[in-house]
Design a protein that fits this description.
Blueprint: H1 3-13, E1 36-40, E2 48-50, E3 56-65, E4 71-72, E5 90-91, E6 96-98, E7 112-116, E8 124-133, E9 139-144, E10 147-148, E11 157-163, E12 168-176, E13 185-191, E14 197-204, E15 212-213, E16 216-217, E17 221-226, E18 235-243, E19 250-257, E20 263-266
Antiparallel strand pairs: 1-7, 1-10, 2-3, 3-6, 3-8, 4-5, 8-9, 11-18, 12-17, 12-19, 13-14, 13-18, 15-16, 19-20
Length: about 270
Amino acid sequence: MSTSTSRILTSLIAGATMVASVVHAPGAAAQLPRQEEILLPIYLRSNVIAGANGSTFGTELVVFNRGTEHVAFGPCNEPSDPPCPPGEPVIRPNETWFNHSMGFTTAGLFGRMVHVRHEQADDVVFNLRAISRASTGADESANLPVVRTADFKTATISLLNVPLGTERRATLRVYDPEDRGDTRGVIVRIYTFSGDLLREDAYRFSPSGYASHDGYPFAPSFIQIALPDTVGADRVRVDVVPQGEGLRFWAFISLTDNRTEHVTIIAPE
């Protein structure tokens, strides 16, 4: 992965430097939210970030309402006092949005939380794509996962068959949908395929910097880690272990090729 592409991907999560520290007591089961949570791990809307040698990076978000009723997107889609300006965006039945404004705050350089009523969650279909364009005009794209309430985990996430080396850069991103900041954290362990532990580090979450509304965060807390080029194995398993009472979380790895700038996503099974 080129240095510019790495910086582009790094800027998308807008991370503060993470300080390694163990957070004690993996805890009790978390209470599920009143509405369906939807995490957009990277959401640039129509913005494009410039890289070196004329390359650019952006995202495309397509949303389709296959239901028979209008669907309002939160956090501002429930009555509250005081109300949440500027009001919720609403998608009509059989309507498709392309890079549409979600109606609140700005594009999520470090992820965006969206909420819909549980009974309408299956009516809304998302496609989120990362687009990298070289100076030659050639495009490389990769689908980014769109994460639902049921996808968040309370136990270890294992990310399998992760290639490491100087040909690419591997970046691990971890999200807390409740945006509780450094009160929670994770331990990251890297293993050989035979189960030998190669490396272990602990990290706390950085808060999103956004407020929440009526208990619904606008954006997640996050951790971003550049995985080492060499740890004694070319391909490894990466375990992300939750640390903190009631933590629900999600994680994935992006791999960016140094030569082609092609992005590959490794997400939980």
